[in-house]
Amino acid sequence: xxxxxxxxxxxxxxxxxxxxxxxxxxxxxxxxxxxxxxxxxxxxxxxxxxxxxxxxxxxxxxxxxxxxxxxxxxxxxxxxxxxxxxxxxxxxxxxxxxxxxxxxxxxxxxxxxxxxxxxxxxxxxxxxxxxxxxxxxxxxxxxxxxxxxxxxxxxxxxxxxxxxxxxxxxxxxxxxxxxxxxxxxx
Length: 186
Fold this sequence. Notes:
Shape: elongated
Order of helices and strands: HHHHHHHHH
Largest sheet: none
Radius of gyration: 19 Å
Number of helices: 9
């Protein structure tokens, strides 16, 4: 998680405290998803299952979190006049940046959603292929792959949402103005 937070934070290097925001988001998104899987008894609580499953979730969450944070900052910078106008007209910072948050989440999560929609039709992921080649029934392999795709989607989505809410306040001053130092350099 530390390396993933560092890597995602590097992608969003202009986001203040980006490494901490990314690390915390990835940790929480992965932990919540893992707890749900264990509570629902999808996987037993043993290192044999937890380590590879958590590794897959952390890897996907790292990618989507870094893209979300970078995209959010870049979109606000590109549309800085629109955001400042909304703030000047009385919008809260959250209202002024709602479109940028939505766009950042959609862009970051699109590859994960597309992959989940087309798995088995276009690509045969390694877990499913490995199980079939190892002698498991295709039905079991497909069931496992559905669980894997949903857990990756869950961890990525939670991590992205958390990262937007944690990085968003860093873009504004205490008086709800854009923090010029965040948007002044490229």
